[in-house]
Amino acid sequence: YSIISSCPLSVCSIGCTGGDVGYSVAHGGGGGGGQGVIIYSNTQPTVNVTSTTAPGNGGNSCSGCTGTINGQAGGGPTNSGIITLSTGPLPIELLYFNAENRKDDVGLSWATATQKNTNMFIIERTLDFKTWTTVCSQKAAGNCNTTLYYEDTDAKPIGGISYYRLKTVDVDGQIHYSKPVDITRNDEKNTIFIYPNPASEELTIISSNSNGALNYRMYDIACKEVIVNAKVTDPYKTTLETIFLAQGIYFLKINTGVNDPGIIYKIIIR
User: Fold this and answer.
1) Are 55 and 73 spatial neighbours (Cβ–Cβ below 8 Å)?
2) Cα angle: 171, vertex 43, 32; to 5 degrees
3) pTM of the model
4) Where are the beta strands (DSSP E) in the chain?
């Protein structure tokens, strides 16, 4: 690198700032983004060059709330995201990552053309791109220049639309993700999945069978029915607005018709 003193260069990479709360209801700001990254293929330039990486700041809490519930800043000390002498290839060359709907499960398969210092493969599943759950994992080859094929299974898939991704963990702890793939299941036996629990802003109900609407009622700890707004986003998914409920324990009763006695779920609002 050759940077003249009359035209110094500043290289900066900072995580995104968490979202601010735009209303007066007590609620914390969004968390800040992770440490930014600067990658140099050679040694870090220092003559007439300033390099800075930092995590993103947390978002501000609601108007009038105390600063103690502002969002947390992202992790990592300042400038810990500067990487030098990065001349090697990426840890893996992923040929494909697929998810296949089967009668009782979801088949998962992937292949790599090369691997470098690769420690572990982990497959994760989500319904909302917010909460990812580990489905299965396999040991990687470490270092390999030949094509390797992998298979695994999600033995307990969720009804409706699910998304899967392949998480690759290197021996030094670095993590890489594949592009998510989606699966839609319509099971004969209707299975109900509720998340998150505890909840704060909203509660999502997933039905594994799209035939027929769900009937639901929510009660507080004194068995008094409370009214919550609902939004049906697709035949499998209903979202209940819980942001205006007081913190505490509630009971959600769900049934699928006149002859269904229903199931009661304990819900925590915080």
Assistant:
1) yes
2) 60
3) 0.51
4) 9-14, 38-39, 49-54, 82-83, 92-101, 106-126, 133-144, 148-154, 160-170, 175-177, 181-185, 192-195, 202-207, 215-220, 225-226, 230-234, 237-241, 248-255, 263-269
Helices assigned H by DSSP within 32-131? none
Q: pLDDT tens, position by position, for the chain (270 residues)?
A: 677 878 888 888 887 777 776 666 666 666 667 777 887 767 788 888 888 888 878 777 666 665 555 667 766 678 877 877 554 555 788 999 999 998 889 999 999 999 999 999 999 998 877 788 899 999 999 999 999 999 999 998 887 778 999 999 999 888 888 888 988 877 656 678 888 889 988 998 887 665 556 788 899 988 899 988 888 877 778 889 999 899 999 999 887 665 667 788 899 998
Question: Which residue in 2, 1, 77, 90 sits closest to 40, CA to CA?
Answer: 1
Length of the chain: 270
3-state secondary structure of 144: strand
Count the Cβ atoms, other than its own, within 10 Å of residue 78.
Answer: 13
**Number of Cβ atoms within 10 Å of the Cβ of 215:** 13
What is the C-alpha to C-alpha distance for residues 173 and 109, in angstroms, rounded to an integer? 23
Rounded to whole angstroms, the Cα distance separating 127 from 196 reads 11
d(CA 124, CA 118): 17
The structure tokens listed for 166 are 């392949």
